[in-house]
Amino acid sequence: MDEARAVLDRLDRIESLDREAAPAGELLEELRDLLREAETWLRAEPDPQGAVEALAGCRHALDTQPQEGMFLASRP
Hints:
By secondary structure, this protein is mainly α. It has helices spanning about 1-20, 25-45, 50-65. The chain has one domain. Helices cover about 70% and strands about 0% of the residues.
């Protein structure tokens, strides 16, 4: 249960940073931390079938983004 709470807390931080128009690099770091925490949560779950596929998609999306000078679409 601690693993799930860590993921939810991280999502709250990401939403807050997004509302504050934080720099893209800061958001990207939070997203990477979220991914690590989600992986920890999955390892704690007895049968994480669909979640494993979703996590793989997230990892792929992060891995294909440029590391330096990444541009995020402007927020409304």
